[in-house]
Amino acid sequence: MADDHLKPKRICLVGATGLVGAQIIESAVSRPDVRVIGVARREAPLPFGARMEMLLADAAHWGDAIAAANARVLVCALGTTWRKAGRDEAGLRAVDHDLVLSCARAAKAAGIGHMIVVSSVGANRVSRSPYLRVKAEMEDALARIGLKRLDILRPGLLRGKRREPRPAERLAMGISPIVDPFLHGRLRRFRSIGVDTLAQAIFALVREKAGGRFVHEHDALHYVIRRGGG
C-alpha cells in the first residue's frame, strides 16, 4: 500500500480568481504533492503546465462543487474590498462573512475536516474599520462550525502582481521594503509578505494533522514554512 504521506493532497480552492488563489494555482504547478480543484464563478487563466480542475458554478451552488471536489482540505481565499463592495458593509459581509461561512459548512457536510482561510492582520470585532470588523466576525463564526482543524491566516500587506492594481496599493508595495524593517515587537505582524510566501505557508499547513484552531500572523507564517518545508 502506498504511503499516504506521498499521495498528493487534494485541495479545494475557493477564491481561485483572486491574487492569492491565482498564486496558489501557479505555485502548485511545480508541486507533485498537491492537487488543486478550484471552485469559481468564472473561468480563470491557468499557467502553463497546470494540473488541476476548475469547477464553475454560481455561488449558490458552490456547496455541490465543493462536495464534487472530493478534497481533504478547503482553502478559502475569498475576499472583496471596501471599494468593490460599494463602500457598503452589507456588500462586504455578503462575501467576506456569509459566503465564507457557506463554503465552510459545505466542506464540513462533504467530510472535509480541515479549512485554511485567508483573513487579515488587525482583524478585530471592535475595530472602527468595517473590513477588519467583518473579518474578525468571520473568524469567530468559523470556529463555531466544528471543523476538526481551522487555520486562520492574518497576513499584512500582500506583495504581488494584481490584475487591477490601485495607486494606493502600488505605493504601499513600493515603500513596504523600507517600512518593514522598522516594524518590531508587536508591530512585526504588520510587515508585508509576498503572496508567493503566503502560498508556501498554505501548502505547508495542508499537511498538518493536529486538530484545533490556529491563528498565523507574519512570523508564524514564516515558521510553518521552515517547519513544514512548504
Secondary-structure map:
Layout: E1 9-14, H1 19-28, E2 34-40, E3 52-56, H2 62-68, E4 73-76, H3 89-109, E5 114-118, H4 130-143, E6 149-153, E7 158-159, H5 167-179, E8 193-194, H6 195-206, E9 212-216, H7 218-228
Parallel strand pairs: 1-2, 1-4, 2-3, 4-5, 5-6, 6-9, 7-8
Helix pairs in contact: 1-6, 2-3, 3-4, 6-7
Share in helix: 25-40%
Span of the ends, CA to CA: 25 Å
CATH superfamily: NAD(P)-binding Rossmann-like Domain
Mind telling me which CATH architecture this is?
3-Layer(aba) Sandwich
Bulk shape: globular
Oligomer: single chain
The total domain count is: 1
CATH domain fold name:
Rossmann fold
The number of distinct helices, counting runs of at least 4 residues, comes to 7
Write down the CATH class.
Answer: Alpha Beta
* Number of DSSP strand runs: 9
Nearest-integer average pLDDT: 90
Strand count, sense and closure of the main sheet? 7 strands, parallel
Report on this model:
This protein is α/β, with parallel strands linked by helices and 230 residues long. It has a single domain (4-228), classed as Rossmann fold, CATH 3.40.50.720. Helices cover 38% and strands 18% of the residues. The protein is built from seven helices and nine strands; from the N terminus they run βαββαβαβαββαβαβα. The chain has helices spanning 19-28, 62-68, 89-109, 130-143, 167-179, 195-206, 218-228, and strands spanning 9-14, 34-40, 52-56, 73-76, 114-118, 149-153, 158-159, 193-194, 212-216. The strands form two sheets. It has a seven-stranded parallel β-sheet with strand order 3-2-1-4-5-6-9, sandwiched between helices. The longest helix is centred in the middle third of the chain and has 21 residues, at 89-109. The two termini are 25 Å apart. 37% of the residues are buried.
